[in-house]
Amino acid sequence: MKNIYLNIHKANSFNLKKAKKIVENNNLVGLPTETVYGLAGNAYSSEAVKKIFKLKKRSLVNPLIIHFKNLKDTKNDIIHNNSLIKLYNALCPGPITFILNKKTKSNISKIATAGKKTVAVRFPQHKIARSFLKILNVPLAAPSGNISTKLSPTCANDLVDEFGKKLEYILDGGKCKIGLESTIIDLTGKPTILRQGAINTKKISKILKRKISINKKTKSIKSPGQLKYHYSPGIPVFMNKIKAKKSGAFITFGKKFKSAKNHFNLSKSYNLKIAASNLYKTMRKIKNQNFKSISICKIPNVGIGKAINERLKKASNK
Ligand code: TXA
Ligand code: MG
User: Fold this and answer.
1) Is the pLDDT assigned to residue 219 strictly greater than 50?
2) What local confidence, expressed as pLDDT, does residue 84 receive?
3) Which fold, 237-315?
């Protein structure tokens, strides 16, 4: 049998060391996190970072998230502030990314930050990501491991689906627990959410004891990745529907829709967290089964449902 998954490796200590060598040689590794899988390389190396942009077909104006083991390790690269300390202590490691000012002496590749004075910083919670960061001497630039504007990967096979043999080494961490990308909060001024995620605005607001705004305007794009069209399965997506289109599939939530060959359920128990973790996987499956479109029922706009709807809105924007 043809083994197309030769590049997926169990994340034992031997293979973590192998992956470390790859990163030290400025090559790339597929890395599991609790949100989605990343395409990771040495954040201090422009050579490595260029490879990330190339493989993802990502525009060079769209900066990457830099992953660190802990706050202490960021001291040469970013300027800390009170909001960061409070959120870090309450939520990290965890599924949240902070936009902060970069120190002028920082070694982070200018290509990684797209020449900006700010940098997106994240401290992933996933055990494998943490073990890997622990044995590395550098932070990791790691955007989601998908071709630009497409669906993020939520298991190791999805990375193979995206990049085939071009990504030589993938550390297998099973299915991502959350399944949607991290919350992004800009802390360079008035705290502003740039991307919604599992950690919601209410929670952040409680920790910082202040109102948090959400940047919804795509015109004054703070985060270049807040593109209007994103998270696309490669076929049209229609929101708030009650049935599939001709030759299309229908994604359902809860119990009120009947089962059918072209019906895919996100969570029969109306659990939005489960729905979030199944969303990309389900959309990818539908696309790979050659359905021509995806219709999806109304998803309650509460909790992580807000992050789901934010993604669906962009996926349906074409
Ligand atoms: O959950 C996640 O955050 C995953 C995992 C792998 O950590 N990563 C991820 O990276 O989603 P990416 O590159 O797909 O999304 C990062 C977003 C992009 O929208 C980018 O524009 C934005 O972060 N970003 C990066 N640096 C920024 C900066 N300095 N200012 C504003 N936005 C920034
Ligand atoms: Mg992405």
Assistant:
1) no
2) 98
3) Rossmann fold (3.40.50)
